[in-house]
Specification:
Diaminopimelate Epimerase, Chain A, domain 1; about 290 residues; 18 strands; binds ligand LBFN2T5F; 2 domains; alpha+beta; 18-stranded mixed sheet
C-alpha cells in the first residue's frame, strides 16, 4: 500500500513544475529529494518544485500572512532555492483557484522576493505584477561566453539575477548543456540565469535561457521580464520618461509571453498556466533519499 504524498504537475510555456500541496508546512524536502522529484528518468521530471504552504505556516512568509494567504516555496531542479519564479507563480495561482483555495480574480502570493499580485480569470491567461526591474550595473564590462564566442551582457534583477545578451542567432548559444561563463563572476555571487536574445520585429524578440539550478529550460518568466527591460532600454524606450506603458512580445521555445512595463516601473507578465495531472507519490520512495 503506497503511503501517498499528493502532487500535481503543471507548466507555464513549458517551464514545468511538480506542485506539492503542503498547507501546514509539514513537508521538509532536502535538496536531494527535490532533485530526485525533478529527475526526468528516476523521478516525476520537472524544471522545479512549487511547494504550496499557507503563509502563516512558513517562517519566511509569516510577516506577509495578512496580505497574502499562500507562500510559493520554489526550488530549482538541482534542489537549490530561488527567490522568484515567474512561470511558477502563474501556475501556483492557477492551482490555488482550481483547487478552490482562492477565488478567480485578483490574489496575492508571497514569494521570497516579496508579494506578487496575480490576476487569475476562471479560464485563460494569467497576469502577474512582477514588480520593478533593478538594473544594478555595472552598465558595461559584463560578458557572457559560450566556447570561443562572447557577448556584452546586461545585469537585470527581477527578484532573481539575470544576464541578458543580444546575439545574432539563437543557435549561437550552442547546446547549453553546461552553464555559459559569465564574467566578472563577482557581479553574481549567487549565480545567474542567462538569456540569449534576438530581434523578431518591432517590440518583439525571441530568447533562449540557461537557468541557474535547472539548465536550459523552455521558458523563464523572470527572464522574459529581464529581456523586455534590457531590450526596451536598448531601443531607447523608458515608460518612466514617456509616461506611456510599453509592451513587448517575448517568444520562448515553449510559447509566448507578453510583458508590459508601466510608467511607475511595475512590470506585468501575461501568459498561460496549465495544470495537467494529479497523483500520489510513494512517500517511502522519497524518504529513501
Ligand atoms: N523559471 C523561473 C525562474 C526559476 C528560478 C531561477 N532558475 C533562479 O535560480 O533564479 C521563471 O519562470 O522565472
Amino acid at each position: 500500500m503506497v503511503k501517498g504524498i499528493r502532487f500535481l504537475k503543471g507548466h507555464g510555456t513549458e517551464n514545468d513544475f511538480v506542485i506539492l500541496p503542503d498547507p501546514d508546512g509539514l513537508l521538509e524536502l532536502s535538496a536531494a529529494q527535490v532533485a530526485l522529484l525533478c529527475d526526468r528518468r528516476a523521478g516525476l521530471g520537472a524544471d522545479g518544485v512549487l511547494r504550496v504552504v499557507r503563509a502563516e505556516a512558513h517562517p519566511e512568509a509569516k510577516p506577509h500572512a495578512a496580505t497574502a494567504g499562500w507562500f510559493m516555496d520554489y526550488r530549482n531542479a538541482d534542489g537549490s532555492i530561488a527567490e522568484m519564479c515567474g512561470n511558477g507563480v502563474r501556475v501556483f495561482a492557477r492551482y490555488l483557484v482550481q483547487a478552490g483555495l482562492a477565488e478567480p480574480g485578483d490574489l496575492a502570493v508571497a514569494t521570497r522576493a516579496g508579494i506578487r499580485r496575480v490576476r487569475v480569470p476562471a479560464e485563460g491567461d494569467v497576469t502577474v505584477d512582477m514588480g520593478r526591474a533593478l538594473l544594478p550595473g555595472p552598465e558595461t564590462g559584463i560578458e557572457v561566453a559560450v566556447g570561443e564566442r562572447h557577448w556584452p551582457a546586461h545585469n537585470v534583477n527581477m527578484g532573481n539575477p539575470h544576464a541578458v545578451a543580444f546575439v545574432e542567432d539563437l543557435a549561437d548559444a550552442g547546446d547549453l548543456y553546461t552553464a555559459p561563463e559569465v564574467t566578472p563572476a563577482a557581479v553574481y555571487p549567487e549565480g545567474v540565469n542567462v538569456e540569449f536574445v534576438v530581434d523578431r520585429g518591432p517590440r518583439h524578440v525571441a530568447m533562449r535561457v540557461h537557468e541557474r539550478g535547472s539548465g536550459e529550460t523552455r521558458s523563464c518568466g523572470t527572464g522574459t521580464c529581464a529581456v523586455m527591460v534590457a531590450t526596451a532600454r536598448r531601443d531607447g524606450v523608458d515608460p518612466a520618461v514617456t509616461g506611456e506603458p510599453a509592451t513587448y512580445t517575448v517568444d520562448v521555445p515553449g510559447g509566448r509571453l507578453v510583458i508590459t512595463e508601466r510608467p511607475d516601473g511595475g512590470i506585468e507578465m501575461t501568459g498561460p498556466a496549465v495544470i495537467l495531472a494529479e497523483g500520489e507519490l510513494d512517500a517511502d520512495w522519497l524518504a529513501r533519499v
